[in-house]
Amino acid sequence: VGDAFDLAWKLAGVINGWGGPGLLDGYETERRPIGGRNVAAAGWAAAGVPVWRALVTQAVYDDTPEGDAVRCALAASFDVEHRRMHGMVGVEAGYSYAGSPLIADEPGNAAEWETSRYEPHARPGVRIPHMWLDDGGAMQDVLGDNYTLLDLRGDCDAAPLRAAFRTLGAPLQVLHLNEARVRDVYGASVFLLRPDLHIAWRGDAAPVNPRALAARATGWSGR
After folding, report:
1. Distance of alpha carbon 98 from its chain centroid, rounded?
2. Are 153 and 183 in contact (CB under 8 A)?
3. Confidence grade of residue 221 (pLDDT, cut at 50, 70, 90)
4. Cβ–Cβ under 8 Å, residues 165 and 180
5. Which of 17, 98, 123, 204 has the most CB within a 10 Å radius?
6. 0.90 exceeded by pTM
7. DSSP string, 153-220
8. How far apart are CA 134 and CA 120, in angstroms?
């Protein structure tokens, strides 16, 4: 699903004329490392099954003290080893495109995530985490299908970035909110989100160089 979503919006950008030469290249740059990590995680998960199955002996079917002990050991192993394939929340939700040419650099930001643990953050490259807003709505429900300048303070001057995207012909939605709690959790006030809701850039004010940011996010950077 991630592969299809990543490729679909980039194809749409090229077909509609606003996607630069580097946009489709970003598909392999971003998704190949994720695919490799997913394959490795799937292998690790599958390897847990024979671990607990090896504990299944005839005694497991016997109503004896020995059978009780075997079943206890089997259940404990099953709970750990079989859980691998159902608990890979980090692989599923925590992957990052940090380091992609389409993502703004941020010091110390690396494409790293755990397999079975998801700790939400809002550094460039990740899909913006779910948050409840002050009115009870969900963050993802107020975001559209295009690029979004998400202003969580409500006073960001979006005009320069609007102009930069307009020059490229790329669609940009501007969303002004005032969400103090969300700002605290996300660690910034202003975000540029891509159509796939991955964070392309973040800061505490409008971007200093909006034309360069728009070019990077749409695949025109360095061309």
Report:
1. 10
2. yes
3. confident
4. no
5. 98
6. yes
7. SS----HHHHHHHHHHT--EEEEE---HHHHHHHT-SEEEE-TTSBEEEEESSS-S-HHHHHHHHHT-
8. 19
